[in-house]
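User: Some background: our group keeps a shared notebook of sequences we're curious about, and every so often someone picks one and asks for a predicted structure to add to the entry. Today it's my turn. The entry only has the sequence so far, pasted here. Could you supply the structure so I can complete it?
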Amino acid sequence: MQILKAPEFENDDYLFRIDVDCIPVGQKAIDIFRQESPSLASYYETKRKAFRAKNVDPSVFADFEEDRPSLNSLSKLKILDSTIYTVASERQNGYSYLDLLDRIRQHISLHPNTRRCMVRLANSYAEYSSSEIDSQIDVTCLNLVHYIGDTPRLIFRASDVKNELFVDLLTIHEFFIQPVYEGKAKQLSVYSSSAQGVSSWQNFVDYVNRFTKKG
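Assistant: Of course. Here's the predicted structure to add to the notebook entry:
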């Protein structure tokens, strides 16, 4: 893990890079999680299943709300059409999830040096603005996935370092990076324009380094 910019205070930005082949996927990741934290393994597995099934029912995360304060707001939502990125990608790009992945692979194959292969997950300004007032509107933290060469990038609007970032990293890699590059990506860059839970940054870094070594 290469840290180019660490967050220094709440809502500061960060930028880091990680070798893609160090990121374990699926059952291998779950097995490592179980050694480190069984509760985190269960949460990760639940989120993976929701991504795969495109399950937008907030109740799927009800069992984790007590241990993960970041999930408390989910119980107020009607539908997780932005939190579940496989669904958000369909809504914001006009293709089914699998068709979108196929089109991205073709795009990169035809234009390997392109800077224009970007998948948008960000909500509109109207949705973000309305969500400040209406707690039932789901908005995404991940804005863009930029497929550029063999070094894809993730761009977050907001990032919960303490409760969500590591699981986000694994699920986004599994569902949006690995299926496109199929082992050919070298590094993944991750940028967030605001970070929350900044006091847990070093814990996150230490956990990533331990986890990827085991992977």
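Suggested note for the entry: Residues 2-214 form a domain with the Thymidylate Synthase; Chain A fold (CATH 3.30.572). The first strand starts at residue 2 and ends at 5.
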